[in-house]
Amino acid sequence: MQLANEKVKILVQNLDLVPKDRLEEVFAEAEKDNRPLATLLVEHDLISDDQIGQVIADHLGYDFVDLDNTPIDTEVLNIIPEVMAKKQKVVIFGRDKDGIKLAMVNPGNLEIIHLVEKKTGQPVLPYYTTIDNINAALVKYQKEIQKEFASIIKENISAAKKGAKAEDLPIAKIIDTLIEYAYQNKSSDIHVEPGEEKTLVRFRIDGILHDIIELPKEVHDLVVTRIKILSKLRTDEHQSAQDGKFRADLEDEKLDIRVSIIPIVEGEKIVMRLLSEKSRQFSLEDLGMSSADLVKVKKEYSKPYGMILATGPTGSGKTTSLYAILKILNRREVNISTIEDPVEYDMDGINQIQVNSKTNLTFAAGLRSILRQDPDIIMVGEIRDKETAEIAINSAMTGHLVLSTLHTNDAPTALPRFSEMGIEPFLIASTVNIIIAQRLVRKNCTQCIVSEQVSLAELKNQFSSVLVSKLFGENEAGVRLYHGKGCSVCSQTGYHGRIGIFEVLDVTESIRELIMKRADADQIRDQAIKEGMTTMIEDGIKKALSGSTTLGEVLRATRE
After folding, report:
1. C-alpha–C-alpha distance, residues 162 and 145, integer Å
2. What are the pLDDT digits (tens) for 400-447?
3. Does 372 lie in the same domain as 264?
4. Is residue 466 domain-resident?
5. I need a labelling partner for 91 at 20 to 30 A (CA). Which of 107, 231, 255, 438 fits?
6. Nearest-angstrom CA–CA distance, 73 and 515
7. What is the pLDDT of residue 144?
8. Where residue 166 sits, what CATH number does that domain have?
């Protein structure tokens, strides 16, 4: 049920969910482009899909259901055929003595309600949900990948053994099924790894690799060739690494896929990174940043010049955090340019440059070119060397806001890292505004979460006594911690989704003085903690205490 934009605007405004100026901007855009305001608010990360769903449900007088985190029994789901569910935008998610629980985009659709009542002989309890929730639930109609692959391979393995071409339907079908199933399971990467006798397919879900299926070795080269063709790579090159990308058209969105192929002993290994439009809907709040750290970051990105740094290892979410800031800063009156390797998120209104070593378009060369394009805000994908560091720092000194990433373990270490590159301390002190260090941890599944009492003695085996006293107190009874026991929603892992743990170092006057004195990371850390910085492990423990994650995840992320 689509409410008029004016009504959605009033509802959101009355609840004070979105800053008034941003609400007016997006409302104007919705009216100009004739698009639903609710959809645009979610796309601009001003409100979550579930939040706007709850607002509309309350207004309509229905209960709201988040299907993404609701286990649905297959027998109940299949009461309505998949074709009808897609057409009517409805999903049955529960059944009990009170009746059939029906999630609907339009809960006023009496025709489908009466149809279900007639078919089941039970009353229907309509719930409101959003179109994104319906689409997420519709994938539950899909067959299990093992069954689908078994069918494909059984029918076509003989053709593969006879040397069928990679363009043939069986290979295309295998790859399409892989991508679709990876997308449905919210995988970030697909690994296709050749072995002596079989090829192993693994998905990275919530940061952890899972074995999915083994393919016959006979089809491996055909799969590699097909992916090379899709990615416009050389099919006759087998001894050197190749990088490419292609786009997969799924039913409800277009998926950008980045491809890396490298030769290993048993053949060519493929890794495909899935970049979904829906996964790009993020905000700093959604990423897990605390309100205290958000205040610090907002203060610094509101400045017209200086440098904001994100630090952490590969895959810790640095680029995502910087893009969350860019989305806030992305307005028509400013010129934003980026130089990246690779460009991970396509964003309207931002000039994005891809590093290309073949044409000598390096970070440094690209950054120089950007400076001739009259930019207000610049994002440098990574500062790797002295040349790039010097240009970035000079840019921050001359009236530009510069965002970039560094590979350091924590926030304080980023400052001496610049000195190691040969940057003068006074330049570092006068340009760096704030440093965000982060890791990603898996979130507890909300559908199967349970708690247990843990003694202080057990905690002191994992953490220092000082840290335990500071964060857990001195209660001898211990503390209550949480974990998921495993269910159908989280594929029996106990985890569903990921959240960031952060360490935000605000470069204050006292920190600047330490930089000028060439202080080491430990001295800078001690001063920052005195001034109120929450360390990454402390932030992680607080999230474990709140039930967001487990201590095991915090330890895994901070001690790797």
Report:
1. 25
2. 999 999 999 999 999 999 999 999 999 999 999 999 999 999 999 888
3. no
4. no
5. 255
6. 59
7. 52
8. 3.30.450.90
Alpha-carbon distance of 126 to 100, in angstroms, equals 8
| 104-142 tens-digit pLDDT | 999 989 999 999 999 999 999 999 999 888 988 887 776
Give the residue among 315, 281, 308, 282 at the shortest CA–CA distance from 293.
Answer: 308
Q: pTM for this structure?
A: 0.75
CATH number at residue 301: 3.40.50.300
- Spatial separation of the C-alpha atoms in residues 364 and 411, rounded to whole Å: 24
SS3 state of residue 64 = strand
Domain that holds residue 70: 5-140
Query: Are 116 and 152 members of one domain?
Result: no
Tokens of 181: 């199933």
Same domain, 60 and 206: no
Same domain, 186 and 269: yes
The Cα-based distances of 146 to 25, 142, 151, 201 in angstroms read 47, 11, 9, 11
Residue 156 structure tokens: 């076509």
Count the domains in the chain.
Answer: 3
Query: Which secondary structure element, helix H or strand E, spans residue 242, and what is its range?
Result: strand 242-249
Confidence band for 70, pLDDT divided at 50, 70 and 90? confident
Q: Checking DSSP bridges between strand 432-444 and strand 495-506, what pairing results, if any?
A: antiparallel
